[in-house]
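The data layer described in this paper is built around a simple, fixed record for each protein. We quote a single record here, exactly as it is kept in our systems:
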Amino acid sequence: RRRTDPDHLLLRFGTGALPSTVVLDDPAADEHERATPHLLTDVPVTLPLAALGVLGIAGPDARALARWSVAQLATLH
């Protein structure tokens, strides 16, 4: 990928539950149900390394995650 690509240095670190960016407006729903964001499961969790500059990895699987990150950088970027 090139520096001009929108996904340049965007690394995937796993999956998780993230709020949906789609907003549904249902006039028939109660007010408290309209304000509740929907969570999507198994969504890719990514970090923009170009914007962060520095990334620290810690925990029991830190080495495996670091290897995975370097493999992504070498292969995709």
The CA atoms of residues 68 and 74 lie 10 Å apart. The chain has a mean pLDDT of 86. The first helix runs from residue 31 to 34. The chain has three helices and two strands.
